[in-house]
Amino acid sequence: MPITPATAATSASSRADASDEPIMLELVDESGRTIGTAEKLSAHQAPGQLHRAFSVFLFDGAGRMLLQQRALGKYHSPGVWSNTCCGHPYPGESPFAAAARRTHEELGLSPALMAEAGTVRYNHPDPASGLVEQEFNHLFVGLAQAPVDPDPSEVNDTVFVTAEELAKRHAADPFSAWFMTVLDAARPAIRELTGEAAGW
Fold first, then answer.
1. Catalytic site residues?
2. What is the pLDDT of residues 87-136, one digit of tens each?
3. Where in the chain does DSSP place strands (E)?
4. Distance between start and end Cα atoms, the chain
5. Which of 146, 190, 193 is nearest to 166 (CA)?
6. Which end of the chain, N or C, is less surrounded by CB atoms within 10 Å?
């Protein structure tokens, strides 16, 4: 697994936050090739349009995973627990750069030693909102080596958990529809990063 230092490059973020501009996503075919763009909400309306996404899993020095609880004001999957960070690259933005950017925007930290962990394609309807996640998802794993400083408009809460603690929390609390799919796909890279003793 190649290891590359990640920085919180925010050059693309200056385009993102103008509230009057629609957020555009990259539409892709089944092999992940870009075939067009679509507005974010329309891409998630049933039956959903296959689009590019990313999911980040960060760990502390003890091999515990950083989870976030999504902000209660989000229109999609509010208040549920999920992996460290997930989102969508801007059209033309690399998934790696998008993952580093959004982790910094949402959690106030820059991933260290972030590395690619493969891709996974899924179709997950969200019964609560009626929205559909049709995603070609790029996975990344890395380390969280700085204090977390979440943006409250994005993140309601955070917690570091062991594999055993995650299993208990997942059984008791609501999680995002995509969480177990992306976690299972990323497990080989997670084990390589954290070591077998961490239990992932």
1. 86, 135
2. 999 999 999 999 999 999 999 999 999 999 999 999 998 877 788 999 99
3. 24-28, 34-39, 51-59, 65-70, 81-82, 85-87, 112-125, 132-143, 155-161
4. 17
5. 190
6. N
